[in-house]
Amino acid sequence: MFEDVLALCESKRTFLISGHLRPDGDCLGTEVALYHFLKGMGKDVRILNADRVERCYDFLERHTPFEVHSKGGELPGHEVHCLVDCSTLSRLGSVGEAAAGVEGVTRLVVDHHIGADRGDGDLLLFDVAAPSAGSLVYDLHRKAGAPISMPAAEGIFVSLAADTGWFRYSNTDDATFAIAADLVARGLKPHELYDALYRRRQRESIPILTEALSGASFELEGRIAVCLLDKELMRRVDGCDFQTDEILEQLRSIEGVEIVLLLKELLDGRIKMSLRSTGARDVDRLARRFGGGGHAKAAGAELEGPLVRARDAAIEALVEEFGV
Ligand SMILES: [Mn+2]
After folding, report:
1. Is the dihedral of CA 64, 68, 69, 74 positive or negative?
2. pLDDT tens figures, 241-284
3. Res 87: pLDDT
4. Overall domain count for the chain
5. Are 105 and 79 in contact (CB under 8 A)?
């Protein structure tokens, strides 16, 4: 796998890197690492996403240019399109729509989600056991014998921190710590990244968090925690870059909770479902019922509205899938 990817990187000159809609820390960190890896090879590289970099990740822009695609616009010329932390053009939003009509381009998928091998990639940098997509770009550096620049190290670390919940989730193993330790040995300062990621919250996030948590309910003898964010609350979330992951994190800290179900009513009326499992329940299977997916312990999908109907459908599916 690495040999083929390296051969592609060596043989081509122009690269476009794009990540999924509403890019998270793994997506952005991986883009950063891949950008600097390719730059180090003397390549012509651009990062182009459908959505802007959210405020909590804006420190990554110190060393790396992120461009935002204007819907309907053409893509800049490229020989290789790298799809990061996802595997289908449909996850790229407007970038994917523009890319669908482009011919003669090799698509490289850099991903760790279940099913990425059934996506739109011509070539895969893919391992479902990788803790983050960024860890695959770390491996790519090592296989290539390439130096890891400080911006790339930062990107890889942010990707790990994001997808392991700062080294707390079950995807954190000795290999994860070995990568982190290597990056720290190279001069990376974890506490600086922690502060940058988690200690720059806006005050407006406090009432959003308290309202969301106080509205949460516990179903099926407390084994499922359910939180609904209606359009009004989501408008305030968007206004201050509040990270809804924080709600999931709080709810899964409650004793007895096996699954957290978060439903967000997006401003265009669509309902986004996020699922987290605290134990043996495979929420990827559940998300797949609704055309989504992800990982066994963290997955998502889009549901039909309105919000209350989506909640009933999700809980019904939970009962069917797990018999809880
Ligand atoms: Mn990821």
Report:
1. negative
2. 788 889 999 999 999 999 999 999 998 889 999 999 998 899 99
3. 97
4. 2
5. yes
Q: Does the model's pTM come out above 0.90?
A: no
Q: How far is the CA of 103 from the centre of ligand 1 (A)?
A: 27
Name every residue whose Cβ is closer than 8 Å to that of residue 172 and which is 6 or more positions away in sequence: 131, 164
- How far, in Å, from the CA of 27 to the mean position of ligand 1? 6
Q: What is the extent of the structural domain holding 226?
A: 205-322
CA–centroid distance, 12 to ligand 1, in Å, is: 26
pLDDT at 148 over 80: yes
Q: Please give the pLDDT value at position 242.
A: 84
CA–CA gap between residue 287 and residue 95 (Å, rounded):
24
- pLDDT band per the 50, 70, 90 thresholds, residue 324: low
Which residue among 198, 218, 244 closes a domain? Answer: 198
What is the distance in A from the centroid of ligand 1 to the CA of 29? 10
The closest of 90, 28, 99, 97 to 64, measured between CA atoms, is 28
The stretch 120-127 carries a mean pLDDT of 97
Task: Note whether 189 and 214 are same-domain residues.
Answer: no
Q: Answer with the one of 165, 198, 231 that is the final residue of a domain.
A: 198
Whole-number Å distance, alpha carbon 127 to ligand 1 midpoint, is: 11
Measured between alpha carbons, how far is 187 from 190 in angstroms, rounded to an integer? 9
